[in-house]
Design brief:
By secondary structure, the chain is mainly beta. 4% of the residues lie in helices and 39% in strands. It has 2 domains: 1-30, no CATH class; 35-130. It contains 1 helix and 12 strands; from the N terminus they run ββαββββββββββ. The strands form 3 sheets. Strands 3-12-4-7-8-9 form a 6-stranded antiparallel sheet. A hairpin with a 5-residue loop joins β5 and β6.
Length: 135
């Protein structure tokens, strides 16, 4: 059934967030976390001007365009990047996962570009940092 987990031993439906079958107490198997998820710490609410070359960041949001029909078209970057350098209005970086090559991540003042009609808004950032293991 859609929206339910089917138990492999009793073949009955359970809730989608179940860890154990409510009928026969068989544990559901889950996909193991990737090495990156286990070893990466996310730092929120950072000042983007403190980033240095080599920092890994996760980016979302950013500029967008509204056409005459009122349709929202995102123009900003999304994904993971490595910082190359900074200037007074943004971050120069290159992509790690889905974006390859260089990108300019806008962090300047919000506003509308009168020539293109694009609304420039700051991207949302999270810094990715390796977890430290205490021995």
């Amino acid at each position: 059934m859609k929206g339910q987990k089917i138990c492999s031993s009793c073949l009955r439906g359970n809730g989608p967030r179940s860890f154990v079958c409510r009928y026969c107490n068989t544990a559901f198997t889950f996909k193991a976390q990737s090495k990156e998820q286990k070893n990466t710490k996310v730092i929120r609410d950072i000042d983007w001007k403190t980033l240095v070359k080599g920092d890994r960041i996760k980016v979302g949001g950013g500029s967008y365009y509204m056409n005459k029909a009122g349709e929202f078209l995102p123009m900003g970057y999304r994904g993971k990047f490595v910082v190359d350098s900074l200037d007074n209005k943004g971050i120069k970086a290159y992509g790690i996962d889905k974006h390859t090559g260089f990108a300019y991540i806008w962090m300047g003042e919000d506003g509308k570009d009168k020539d293109t009609g694009i609304f420039r808004t700051k991207h949302k950032l999270m810094k990715l940092k390796q977890k430290t293991v205490l021995v």
